[in-house]
Amino acid sequence: MKRSTPGFILTESSLKPVYANTEAIRILAYPQNPSQIGSIDNFLTEKMQSVLMAHLDPSGPAFVTEFSSGKRRYVCRAFALNSNGADVFPAAGIAILIERKGRGSFDGSEIAGRFQLTAREREVLEFLMQGLTNKEIGKRMNISPNTVKAFLRLIMVKMGASTRAGIIGKILDTQFRNTGDFFD
Hints:
The chain is an alpha+beta fold. The protein contains seven helices and five strands. The chain has helices at 22-29, 40-52, 108-114, 119-129, 134-141, 145-159, 164-179; strands at residues 7-12, 17-20, 66-69, 72-80, 92-100. The relative contact order is 0.11.
């Protein structure tokens, strides 16, 4: 199976688009043809507000983790950029990666609901299902590996598992019982 190219958007800290690759524009424009779009900046600003922004937290910008474009599902990841005094992208604030959610992707919402996991526990669980180590999970979540261990212990208690492999086994068992197939 051919892996699709991810969409990428770079914004200023004010969320004004600085750069977007053609795949990001294509994903957000669907079903419209991207060549029919007049002002790309205005289009991206409107689409970020209507599609990518979660309107749940009035205290600051938050991005959705998943959305649909046509019949396809996409995963949206936003990364705050810290220039550390570097002048590479002086006005850049956020990088947004949009990847197609494949057939083998893990959807943690059902598991999180069934086992009453918090949003952070669900996030740890999703990274665990990607095969990441505690250190890698910690880097992605901007927390220490020890905090990741604490989250994993909480998940284990809630799921009735005693190891990382036990967590994955519970997830696969739950998914298989509910759908008859391992992943949607």
